[in-house]
Amino acid sequence: MFDNQASSQEKPVEEMPKKEEKTGGILEKIQELGQTNVPQMENSNIHCMTVVGQIEGHMQLPPQNKTTKYEHLIPQLVAVEQNSKIEGLLIILNTVGGDVEAGLAISEMIASMSKPSVTLVLGGGHSIGVPIAVASNYSLIAETATMTIHPVRLTGLVIGVPQTFEYLDKMQERVIKFVTKHSEISEDKFKELMFSKGNLTRDIGTNVVGTDAVEYGLIDEVGGIGQALKKLNLLIDEKKHEGVPIQ
């Protein structure tokens, strides 16, 4: 009896499986890239990219701000374009806007992709989020979502020199041309919304709700995630059958 107890005590204790390395890898991806997989998509032919909070460009924002860093999105877009397993891109937007040049850079990359893309505005697609929303092949907006259209501006009330104003004016023209080129809204209507007085409290611009965005031609359709995925799969099928890039 004593021998059995001794032998049982001498049995090596099995070590619990270590998950530190796996967990550390996932946390590192979340910290560096904003999500866990960028983009492997072994079980799906669609990559989902989110743009939330404020779009962070050349200036680092305070740590308490919810941000989307454009240097994280650009590698994702390149990977989507190069990965043969990924056939479509879904962009989910809920952003207050942010850095104008960073937003335009993201918009240009989405617009120049050869693979079908669909954007879905949830909550809000404000300011420089507007060009990103219209950059894809097809855009949708939730019925309760809004889009704020206003002139390009700096923080503060005073523009110091004429050169600064000219720079902002040219940047604003770049935004206007991009939006009108990639949507059905006319330049006159977009400028009317941008420079409208009285819609925004103590400010210049217009807050456009989901159905109005479609009526103005800014967004293609009112809908949610189901409609967005259905449309993206339809675009993917059309490209397969036609064998040409979706324009």
> Roughly how many Å apart are the termini?
82 Å
Q: What's the architecture in CATH terms?
A: Alpha-Beta Complex
CATH topology description: 2-enoyl-CoA Hydratase, Chain A, domain 1
Strand order of the largest sheet: 2-1-3-4-5-8
Question: Strand portion, in percent?
Answer: 15-25%
What is the helix/strand order? HHEEHEHEHEEHHEHEH
Silhouette = globular
Q: Which structural class do you get from the secondary structure elements?
A: alpha/beta
Structurally, the number of domains stands at 1
CATH superfamily: 2-enoyl-CoA Hydratase, Chain A, domain 1
How would you describe the overall organization of this protein?
By secondary structure, the protein is α/β, with parallel strands linked by helices. The chain has a single domain, classed as 2-enoyl-CoA Hydratase, Chain A, domain 1 (Alpha-Beta Complex), CATH 3.90.226. It has nine helices and eight strands. The chain has a six-stranded parallel beta sheet, with helices on both faces. A two-stranded antiparallel ribbon has the order 6-7. It is globular. The mean pLDDT is 79.
Short description:
The protein is of the alpha/beta class. It is built from 9 helices and 8 strands.
Helices, strands, pairings?
Elements lengths: L1 H9 L9 H14 L12 E11 L10 E3 H13 L5 E11 L1 H12 L5 E9 L3 H6 L3 E4 L4 E4 L12 H20 L5 H8 L11 E4 H6 L5 E2 L2 H18 L5
Parallel strand pairs: 1-2, 1-3, 3-4, 4-5, 5-8
Antiparallel strand pairs: 6-7
